[in-house]
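Can you give me the bound-state structure? Components:
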Amino acid sequence: MSKTFSLTDSDALLVIDVQNDFCSGGALAVPEGEAVVPLINGLLRKFPHSLATQDWHPRQHKSFASQHPGKDAFGLTEMPYGPQVLWPDHCIQGQKGSAFHPDLETNSLELVLRKGFRAEIDSYSAFFENDRTTSTGLTGYLQQRKIKRVFLCGLATDFCVYYSAIDALREGFEVYVIEDACRAIDLEGSLDKALKHMRESGVSLITSTSF
Ligand code: VGL
Ligand code: ZN
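Here's the bound-state model for the whole set.
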């Protein structure tokens, strides 16, 4: 029988980027992205604390292929901080694509953390931007709230969920990824790579039936 969790005041659900642009019909649609919404709503009802991230880009964000003439979306470019995948324009500040999926029950969220708002740096992780040094401030927030275990869900498994999970470990939290409440982009094997790296690093992969 699989482990069931009894949740306490030091547990938080971290809902990653459940936004229109990552769901069907969106600018960077993740296959079946919207399928996570009912599961996450169920989790939100069970968790004592929950927070969400929102990918939140200025119109001319450097992660957009449109800002690199001659380059295609889903290709790579070199940024001052290293290689960066180029994306279709997505999650633009204030537009419908950056809004949460309309069925996501956001009332119990205690914090909404926006990321990716600096035009020059992308930010997959909820903790550090893609230069791996610029902090979002989330570690301090969680520490001051005395959160010890972080449970992640949302979009996409192999990018923002993955980077957030690895950074949460690095920041000293106990980390769980609720796999069936995530969906992946899966660019050239990125999902398998992310799952393997998470397992090897000490992230526990669990399912929403554990609650
Ligand atoms: C994401 C690519 C670009 C994500 C965000 O939420 O996983 N992926 N921006
Ligand atoms: Zn983005």
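A couple of observations. The chain has one domain: 11-60+95-210. The longest strand covers residues 174-183.
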